[in-house]
Specification:
Blueprint lengths: L1 H20 L3 E10 L6 H12 L8 E7 L1 E5 L5 E4 L14 E5 L3 E9 L5
Parallel strand pairs: 1-2
Antiparallel strand pairs: 1-6, 3-4, 3-5
Helix pairs in contact: 1-2
Length: 118
């Protein structure tokens, strides 16, 4: 399960923020995950508490927002949302497209403060 290594990397990033900003613990981590990112939401939710165990993030809340995929059509100059596995323009049905959204995983916010389990 590669989501455990992703969760550990998220906790590492949050700990770095905590070290730079100060505070007693990590309370919340908010992510945006694209539908094409290859990250399985359910598996990440299961792995996150394991990665947090014994760290200043223990008890932290994980918030996930799913970002839909969109493409830019080079033929009709439209940006449209797409639903995997159909990666064609919804306007002209062309396949000459560039991905715009949906492939990233972004840490949007890390909330620090008193340790959540205190």
């Amino acid at each position: 399960m590669h989501e455990l290594s992703i969760a550990q990397a998220i906790v590492d990033q949050a700990r770095e923020v905590l070290n730079n900003e100060g505070g007693g613990g990590i309370k919340r981590v908010s992510l945006t995950i694209g539908v094409l990112s290859g990250v399985e939401e359910h598996a990440l939710r299961e792995a996150f508490p394991i990665a947090c165990d014994g760290t200043p993030a223990q008890g932290a809340v994980l918030e996930i927002e799913i970002e839909q995929a969109s493409v830019y059509c080079k033929d009709c100059k439209s940006e449209v949302n797409v639903t995997p596995p159909f990666m064609v323009c919804g306007q002209c049905m062309g396949g000459n497209v560039d991905f715009r959204k949906g492939r990233d995983m972004i840490i949007r916010q890390i909330e620090i403060g008193e340790s959540p389990d205190v």
